[in-house]
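By way of example, we now present a protein record of this kind:
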Amino acid sequence: MSNTGISSPGTLAQRLVPARGALQRPFVRDGLLVLAGSLLMALTAQISIPLPFTPVPITGQTFGVLLVGALLGPRLGALSMLVYLAQGLLGLPVFAGGRSAWTPRSIPGIPVIIGPTAGYLFSFPIAAAVVGALAHRGWDRNVWTAIPAMLLGNVIILVLGFLWLAGATAFFRGSVDVVALLNLAVLPFLPGDAIKILLAALALPGGWRLLEMLDQR
């Protein structure tokens, strides 16, 4: 029987991908984890439901950010998000709805990377870093600490995304009704965000428990 050391600092990905063989080289191991995180983000982004009353769709991206950040930790989690954004900048269809950074959004001629929803994209590395830092300290080992960690990451995404959207609205329309914008771009998404937070908060402790059970055999 081996000791899992689950109470020690670290992330689930660090335990699942031990530094053995070629993976003893940090560049190789970290590079593979970062690439895997960016690919997971690209997959979750394809879960996209456009809404007629707002340029902000319902997507799986928030779930991807929270999950990748918690799995990889602050440094690799943030790097995964930066690689994900770079993939979009290179023209790969990794953003919501199979878009790249240069695909026009709801405003003709305005690409996604500087469009009304760009603030959400820019928030991803920050949110992943914050959630990853908390997970590295063990917040992802228990549902009751995982939930506030995921909630904090989600709040960062919502706040930065909303601020960018408000600025874009003011730029193109000359003014912005903050209350109306909240009703259009924040409040309708809160129930879905709550579900994604709960799923992420359940997945990580569940992964740790499964790892502990396997190591005890």
Observations:
- Confidence is low (pLDDT under 50) at residues 1-7.
- The first helix runs from residue 12 to 16.
- The helical segments are 12-16, 26-45, 61-89, 118-136, 143-173, 178-185, 190-215.
